[in-house]
Amino acid sequence: MGSCYGKRSQSDYGTQNIDNQPETDNSSPQKFQHIDEQACLGNLIITNEKVGLITKDYTLLNPPLGSGAYGEVRKAIHKSTNMMRAVKIIHKAQTSMEEQERLMNEVKILQKLDHPNIIKIHEFYQDESFFYIVTELCTGGDLFDKLSQEGSLSEKKAAEIMKQILSAINYCHNEKIVHRDLKPENLLYESDKENSMLKIIDFGTSKEFVPKQKLNQKLGITTYIAPEVLKRKYDEKCDIWSCGVILYILLCGYPPFDARSEGRIMEKVSKGVYSFDSQEWEEVTKEAKEFVRKMLQFEPNKRINAQQALNDPWIKRFTNPTEFDRPLMTEVLTNMRKFTKQQKLQEAVFKFIVVQLATKEEKAELLKIFQCLDTNQDGKLSKQELLVGYSKVMKPIEAAEEVNCIFQQVDKNNSGSIDYTEFVVATIDRQQLLSKQRLQVTFHMFDKDKSGSITIDELKEIFSGIPEEMWKQVVQDFDSNSDGQISLEEFFAMMKKID
Ligand code: ADP
């Protein structure tokens, strides 16, 4: 089928604050600050900000992967691990205070979010002239490219795409984050493999919201913008509208509200009138059109939310539920049972390795089990969901005991649910992960001054939030020659205790 979906939206050159007015809602404005941004992993914190030259740790490659409003995104190789990453580079002198705030906001929000369909942040650097955001690398192009190649997609493919986007958005909304700039250019394929996962990027315009409090900044791209955003009185449902526009395009190849000028598009959006009249829609099922209607419902109060969208009959009909793989589930849940209270530092190092060094392949099967357990698809595991999972592989009474015990140990941030990284940390095959080679790499990453041993100060720089008492304990337990430093051998000994 031919496609009229030929042009990229303007926000390739940055998402517009359409009328350039600052947000004036009641929530406190984000002040630009010298951030000590922290990736919270449970109640342990890995400090991610690095001051100094990124080129000490990364080789930046050319040509750029893409360019945004305030700089470019480059592919990079992490020198000590050879892992490939993406680095967003922002020129300080060319950005206003407001734009720098936007960047800090993006870093802060990305560090908070932990979902398989949301781009993962690894590090944040700044030197005199630039800011650098290091994230996982996506190599499969964006959804816009896919659409340009294929015109429109089958309902099955469209549903698989929408399920991933909605799952991430459901998670964001539960975390009280609204994205505000959903569009195909901000949806990247992790790789060019057939079943590659989609990742939402560009959280520069996203915002923490307070339920029932309206936002008022006009943001986003006119094609995807919700009518209530134009009126500057909206909430997180604006993301669902954008999902509706995306789905409409996926199914027919052109946008629901289109015209030659931005002004005319805005006029159409503000009326909210669109149709399924053209021939591209003839073959599309009634359920699909109904689902589009529910997401492009003019009144935000009557519009479905992300959770309801995920449970829509159309999504259910065209996507496969994650298959229940008993042997794998048993193995994973057994690993989780074995997850015993570690020394805090070992646990922190282990999380560091999972986040920074575990490969997609090592996590792929765990993701399947996670999705299988996460029955309400909010991107987290509740006690009840875990109980249902365990009851499939053991007696109900044992399962209940098991789950209580696991929650005490795995839910490190006491959130009442287990998030994706906590799950991976608790269930990954430790022996495989903690190979000698990988521990060596980790050791060298910690040993910043390349002295051949790690000092407590070097560790403190990476892991904040660990009490002074514990550092003393670490020295006592593992520093066998009492020189106040941890050698490679001592580090191996320390990590061996994890099994
Ligand atoms: P901006 O916020 O400045 O608009 P984006 O985050 O949208 O920047 O990134 C600009 C472009 O860089 C994207 O459209 C995409 O092509 C590319 N890009 C961004 N992040 C990644 C990534 N993690 N992997 C691969 N390419 C990326």
From TrEMBL:
GO terms for cellular component: host cell plasma membrane; motile cilium; plasma membrane; symbiont-containing vacuole membrane. It is an enzyme of class 2 (transferase). It comes from Paramecium octaurelia. Transmembrane segments: none annotated. ATP binds at residue 88. Belongs to the protein kinase superfamily. Ser/Thr protein kinase family. CDPK subfamily. It catalyses: L-seryl-[protein] + ATP = O-phospho-L-seryl-[protein] + ADP + H(+); L-threonyl-[protein] + ATP = O-phospho-L-threonyl-[protein] + ADP + H(+). Residues 11-30 have a biased composition (Polar residues). This is Calcium-dependent protein kinase 1. It is a lipid-anchor. Residues 361-396, 398-433, 434-469, 471-499 form the EF-hand domain. The keyword Cell cycle does not apply. Keywords: ATP-binding, Calcium, Cell membrane, Cell projection, Cilium, Flagellum, Host cell membrane, Host membrane, Kinase, Lipoprotein, Membrane, Metal-binding, Myristate, Nucleotide-binding, Palmitate, Repeat, Serine/threonine-protein kinase, Transferase.
